[in-house]
Amino acid sequence: MGLFSFFGKRKEQKQELDEGLKKTRSSWLERISKAVIGKSKVDDEVLDDLEEILITSDVGTETTVKIIDRIEKRVARDKYLGASELDVILKEEIASLLQENNSGDGSDFDIPSDRKPYVIMVVGVNGVGKTTTIGKLAYNFKKAGKKVVLGASDTFRAAAVEQLGIWAERVGVPMVTQGMGADPASVAFDTVKSAVAQDADVVIIDTAGRLHNKIGLMNELTKIKNSCNKVVAGAPDEVLLVLDASTGQNAIEQAKQFTAATQVTALALTKLDGTAKGGVVIGISDQFKIPVKYIGVGEGMDHLQIFNRTDFVESLFNKGE
Predict the structure, then answer these.
(1) Sign of the Cα pseudo-torsion (17, 21, 26, 30, in order)
(2) How confident is the model at residue 5 (pLDDT cuts 50, 70, 90)?
(3) What secondary structure letter does DSSP report for 104?
(4) Tell me, what's the pLDDT at 86?
(5) Across the beta sheet with 292-296, what order do the strands follow?
(6) Span of 28-42, 132-146, 252-266, 297-311 with lowest mean pLDDT
């Protein structure tokens, strides 16, 4: 990709992100403006209002307390902070939190050069956009020149296998399936084995999204991981948890359940474009210390983006909209 193409693509993605975060940004900035109206400095009342804004924006109580504490320390240290500076201070603290949790370090759809195939196991409850995210991942990896194989290990629902098959056909990548009711671990084993035989670069394995029995979920995911490891030592390389940002605190609860059931290494937040609850990205990243790797900002296949914390925070506070 040429230099101008790179910057053109980056500009286009930033515009999509700005548009995707419009609802969150509108609610966020409007409420902050009301909190500081008539105030000359950041005082206890302003901080109380800010705390309420953050919590009701689904940033989460724990993360909100941490942010408020940091701002209080800055107020005490600097003695005087104008109320007009509040959004700047808040922006800096949010960026700092995301950096501490390694969210937004990636720049493109790429994989480590020393791992082939690179195996991604995707987890998450039904309805969060898990299968759609897998399809978009496959599209973007293929677009980046990678050979991709999909595995239909969500054998609990016939619709899940069918939906993944539709995406595989749409993107133009092979899918390994044994149909509904098959052993998920067996499907995963065959998928990785097939990928090795095809000299594929990336394997993406779908899994069932049931949460009614945590022990059952844990056992199933462990079996799938062990099956991958039998074919390629150390696989899966990534366990990606897909969460629906529009569900706010429910997404945080789902993160608790899945991180208790398996070792999640990365997060994908979908449906940011349809919600005012974009603050959940900050809370989940901070609370679970798991990097946010991908975000969904629209329906199109190109609307799954590598999460870039700088762009995210800039879009969240972009007053030009």
Answers:
(1) negative
(2) very low
(3) T
(4) 78
(5) 175-176, 148-153, 202-207, 118-123, 238-244, 266-270, 292-296, 304-306
(6) 28-42
The enclosing H or E element of 164 equals: helix 158-171
Q: Which residues of 213-242 are buried (b: 16+ CB within 10 A; e: fewer)?
A: eeeebeebbebbbebbbebbeebbbbbbbb
Give dist(CA 291, CA 132) in Å, integer. 20
CA-to-CA separations, 179 to 85, 157, 162, 210, 302, in angstroms, rounded: 57, 9, 9, 18, 29
Cβ atoms within 10 Å, residue 88 = 12
Structure tokens at 210: 């049931």
- Cis? peptide before 174, omega within 30° of 0: no
Among positive and negative, which fits the CA dihedral 47, 50, 55, 56?
A: positive
Task: Round to whole Å and give the CA distance between 241 and 265.
Answer: 8
Stronger pLDDT, 209 or 212, i.e. the higher one: 209
